[in-house]
Amino acid sequence: MKIDNSGKPLGAALNRTDSRPSSKTSSESSGAAEVRGENVDITSFSARLASLEANLGSQPVMDEAKISEIRQAIAEGRFSVNPDAIADKLMASVKELLAKP
């Protein structure tokens, strides 16, 4: 599993206003003084994203039960590591990262 921590939190992206100028129509590019923009209503979508973000924020970052299970297996000597599987997944991850532009 890969974790991409390069982005901003979802809340910051939802609260940001887009400061890019709107594209001009053919009449505007011919010298018309009026600049028209398009409005899009994404209120329901935005509300859904905010709800999902709030739900994700309340979820624990770690699975404490799984951690306890692994800790117990290590203590009892039952935990085994498969180095071939780790190496294969590491190589696949590197190849995927190198393939991205």
UniProtKB/TrEMBL annotation:
Keyword annotations from UniProtKB, A to Z: Bacterial flagellum biogenesis, Repressor, Transcription, Transcription regulation
NCBIfam families associated with the record: FlgM_jcvi
Taxon lineage: Bacteria, Pseudomonadati, Pseudomonadota, Betaproteobacteria, Neisseriales
Name listed for the protein in its UniProt record: Negative regulator of flagellin synthesis
Pfam families listed in its UniProt record: FlgM
GO biological process: bacterial-type flagellum organization; negative regulation of DNA-templated transcription
Protein family membership: Belongs to the FlgM family.
Role according to the record: Responsible for the coupling of flagellin expression to flagellar assembly by preventing expression of the flagellin genes when a component of the middle class of proteins is defective. It negatively regulates flagellar genes by inhibiting the activity of FliA by directly binding to FliA.
Region of interest (Disordered), residue spans: 1-37
Biased composition (Low complexity): 20-30
InterPro entries listed in its UniProt record: Anti-sigma-28_factor_FlgM_sf (IPR035890), FlgM (IPR007412), FlgM_C (IPR031316)
Organism: Chitinimonas taiwanensis DSM 18899
Residue ranges occupied by any Anti-sigma-28 factor FlgM C-terminal domain in the UniProt entry: 40-91
Highest taxon of source: Bacteria
